[in-house]
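Box 3.1. Reading complex inputs
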Amino acid sequence: MLEARLEQAELLKKVVDAIKDLVQDCNFDCNDSGVALQAMDNSHVALVSMMLKSEAFSPFRCDRNIALGINLSSLTKVLRCAQNNDILTVKAEDAPDVVNLMFESSDSDRLSEYDIKLMDIDQEHLGIPETEYAATVTMPSPEFQRICRDLSALSESVSIECTKEGVKFACNGDIGSGAVTLRSHSDVENPDQNIKIDLTEPVALTFSLKYLSNFCKASGLAKSVNICLSNEVPLLVEYGLAANSYLRFYLAPKIGD
Amino acid sequence: QKKQQSISSFFAPK
């Protein structure tokens, strides 16, 4: 059986909020290392990969592999019943029909319990190769969100160009064009504002702003975001979570003339 | 016009 207790329901609320517009039905794959999720969006352009390691829970118990097929809009309805600071316990039997979510108020005696009916989801898993990216940009997540939002007003696509000079987000649309260039920046007083660019070779790729803006719904989960690029491969946008856990988004590039 | 690629053309099924 599965029993996983999170100190704060907020983490799962935010994760589900960040991905529910991209993927609808998905399997939460539970085993002794934690809870993982991998799902493509309907148009097979983007891929969500989440890992909540067992260390993120206390306690965590999962005796065998269990796939919990859950409709994310149903899960959202139930998670709305939890306060951010509630303790959240997820429970399921070994061959479950339902998943049980329990919310306990940390400072009162309230205890809420909900069951969500599970779905049989036949989902193919994609192998994501280990990649040494040519460029990794680490920047404040609100800054990345703002750039995507601003450029979305002008165009459907953004070109991201990394050179030793910095990273340039540029777009071209009907009303005109725009570009935001960032350079490496280190602020000792305010490390959350740091911008780090690790570059082994220059990269230039074009991506859909609609998807990038969608990924930015995860901005509340982490103060900084890693944007990893290599020519001709999907972009990785990674939000690091506590206990080595993560929420990653992969986006296929736009290629050709 | 650049063409949107599919994620499954980069990552193969396991």
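In summary: Chain B has a mean pLDDT of 93.
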